[in-house]
Amino acid sequence: ITVTKDEYNNLHTSVVYKKGGEEITAADGLGLYFKNVYEKPEPAEVKFDLTKVLENADLSKYTFDFTLKPQGDAPASQNADAETGIETVQNTADGKISFSTITFGEDVDSKVYTYIIAEKKGINPSIDYDYSPITVTVTVTKGTEGENKNKLMTSVQYTKDDSDVTDDPKFENTYNTPTPVTPAEKLKVTKRFGII
């Protein structure tokens, strides 16, 4: 802003706008604003993989059902039921439990999402089922520097029985061999012949 005084002692001003070192004329209005550009962050994806253990029996002969249930506003997995948001899977013959991909796309600086994984009720009376649910906590953060700038990143923590799971999260069932039933003593029958 330049202030000048004329011969009649009146003050006058002239305004020059500059942006990026270049003069901008007010007449055309070009550049007389601050323009921000929003870029949606790159989403992050996670998959939950667990292990099924069956003591005292060949796991390949048995399958068990497991559910993944999002809590609150946590996004559902790709293959979850459209109405309930719950996904149900079975273990493979080698004991793998794998749920489908979960995509985190909400623009957050830092947010925690929670999921519950549980084994469904079984019907085999010879098996002790592991009904202790596993809580999965996913912390989503947004990168601010370098190659992670504007990318969502995740860290996953499994908890079972109020303790953090530091190794492979698993459900452990035990097969109990049925006690053989002792057959009842054979019924003795005596046949008698008589003359009438």
What would you say this structure looks like, in words?
- With 196 residues, the chain is mainly beta.
- The protein is built from no helices and 16 strands.
- The protein has strands spanning 2-5, 11-14, 17-19, 22-24, 44-46, 49-55, 65-70, 87-90, 96-98, 102-104, 110-119, 127-128, 134-142, 152-160, 163-164, 170-175.
- The strands form 5 sheets. It has a 6-stranded antiparallel β-sheet with strand order 8-7-11-13-14-15, with no helix packed on it. Strands 9-6-16-12 form a 4-stranded mixed β-sheet, with no helix packed on it. It has a two-stranded antiparallel ribbon with strand order 1-2.
- A hairpin with a 2-residue loop joins strand 14 and strand 15 (163-164).
- The N and C termini lie far apart (144 Å).
- The model has no long low-confidence stretch (mean pLDDT 89).
Annotation field: number of helices? 0
**What percentage of amino acids are in beta strands?**
35-45%
The global form is: rod-shaped
Low-confidence parts:
none
Which series of helices and strands comes N to C? EEEEEEEEEEEEEEEE
Major β-sheet, in short?
Answer: 6 strands, antiparallel
Give the distance, in angstroms, between the N- and C-terminal Cα atoms.
144 Å
- Percent range for helical residues? under 10%
Structural class: mainly beta
> Count of DSSP E strands?
16
Average pLDDT works out at 89
Strand order of the largest sheet: 8-7-11-13-14-15
CA radius of gyration is 35 Å
